[in-house]
Amino acid sequence: MYRIIFFISLFLYFYCEISLIIMIGSTIGAFGVIVSMIIISIVGIWLIRLQGAMTAFNIQKQIQVGTFTVKELTAPIIMLIAGILFLIPGFLSDILAVLLIVPFTRKILQNLVLDLLFSKFISANYRQQSNRSDDTILDVEFERSDDKQDK
């Protein structure tokens, strides 16, 4: 089922991409489309390098402070996807890449992806635990220590 949805989505993406190229090409001409795609790709790669450097600096700063989280780990992956989208010729892929670069939309996408991954992980972990055949009961005791005592 997922394969069918994937192939239909891929077909719709290429259909929209080619339709957009033809529509813009009929307005500005074939040479204008080729030049604009090259310029957009160059500017896009420059933006990726700039945002990538800022992301690396922020990650390094957060590691030094000790506040590094999983959310910061997804930023370089999203930048890589945006860079690949900039290299793919077409206007729709460039629009998607710009949406991945903009910090506001990138944070929304990070939250969506992390929520999806964590919900899949938690549901898979719950299914694994609920499929246990033994009725083992664990009796556990713990102590809570304050941060003041640790220093």
From TrEMBL:
The root-end lineage is: Bacteria, Pseudomonadati, Pseudomonadota, Gammaproteobacteria, Pasteurellales
Coiled coil residues, start to end? none
Q: Where are the transmembrane segments?
A: 6-24, 31-48, 77-102
NCBIfam families under this entry?
Answer: PRK11463.1-2
Superkingdom as given in the UniProt entry: Bacteria
Task: Write the record's keywords in alphabetical order, separated by commas.
Answer: Membrane, Transmembrane, Transmembrane helix
Cellular component GO terms, alphabetical: membrane
Full protein name: UPF0716 protein FxsA
The record's section on Pfam families has:
FxsA
